Structures are given as structure tokens and as C-alpha cells.
């Protein structure tokens, strides 16, 4: 069922716009909310922003909440905040999703080897 990305109201299939917020609806189910007091864990470091967004979308497609943390300091023109690391950033997920996220990422990386 389509839903409003702002108010999370679900609509019938033939509705395209939220009557309350006046925004286009998104397809699929309303995403589950992450509890506010959740511990986030690194499941993968990423070499650059593009790789980070690809892996983030792989996990989000599986319904896993993801936070892409960068090591760069935007206010300083992209200078890395942690000079000792070669990675651009990290993929973090809530603690209750760590095992599933690792399995999804392993399956994704394995599929790249097969091609």
C-alpha cells in the first residue's frame, strides 16, 4: 500500500497524493520506526561515499535501518576527521539488526563475485 513519507498515513493503491500533506506517496509499507534509545554498531567500513550509499540501499531494501557515518568534516571542505583511517566512513545499524545486516552484506558481496 502506498504511504505518505511525512505523516506515514497509508492509502489505497489508486491514491497518488497525501490529502493531508499534499506530497506524493511512496510505494510499499510504512517503514518501522527505530526506537530512540538504540545502540548503533559498525557492520562495514566504506572506502568512499558512493560505496556507502550502495551498501546503505542494499540494507534498506531488506528493511534494515541504516546510518551512514562519514569520517569527513564538512565544515572544513571534506578534510578527514580521522586521518589515521583510509576509509571514508562506516555503515551502522541498530544492535538488533547486526547479524541480519552482516548476512545481507555477505550475500551482496558474494553475488558480486559470481558475476
Structural topology:
Blueprint lengths: L39 E7 L2 H13 L5 E4 L1 E2 L5 E2 L8 E6 L3 H17 L1
Antiparallel strand pairs: 1-5, 2-5, 3-4
- Tell me the total number of β-strands: 5
Structural class comes to alpha+beta
Largest sheet, spatial ordering of strands:
1-5-2
Measured between the Cα atoms of the first and last residue, the distance is: 34 Å
Oligomeric form of this entry?
single chain
**Helical coverage, percent range:** 25-40%
Q: Which band does the percent of strand residues land in?
A: 15-25%
- Radius of gyration, in Å, reads 17 Å
- Low-confidence runs: none
Instruction: List SSEs in N-to-C order.
Output: EHEEEEH
Q: Which shape, going by the Cα principal axes?
A: elongated
Tell me what you see in this structure.
The chain is an alpha+beta fold and 115 residues long. It is 26% helix and 18% strand. The chain has 2 helices and 5 strands. The strands form 2 sheets. The chain has a 3-stranded antiparallel sheet with strand order 1-5-2. The radius of gyration is 17 Å and the shape is elongated. The model has no long low-confidence stretch (mean pLDDT 80).
Amino acid at each position: 500500500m502506498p504511504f505518505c513519507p511525512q505523516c506515514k498515513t497509508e492509502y489505497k493503491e489508486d491514491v497518488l497524493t497525501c490529502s493531508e500533506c499534499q506530497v506524493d506517496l511512496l510505494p510499499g509499507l510504512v517503514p518501522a520506526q527505530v526506537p530512540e534509545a538504540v545502540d548503533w554498531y559498525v557492520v562495514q567500513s566504506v572506502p568512499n561515499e558512493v560505496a556507502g550509499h550502495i551498501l546503505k540501499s542494499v540494507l534498506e531494501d531488506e528493511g534494515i535501518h541504516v546510518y551512514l557515518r562519514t569520517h569527513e568534516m564538512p565544515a572544513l571542505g571534506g578534510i578527514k576527521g580521522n586521518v589515521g583511517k583510509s576509509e571514508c566512513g562506516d555503515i551502522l545499524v541498530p544492535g538488533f539488526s547486526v547479524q541480519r545486516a552482516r548476512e545481507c552484506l555477505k550475500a551482496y558481496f558474494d553475488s558480486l563475485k559470481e558475476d
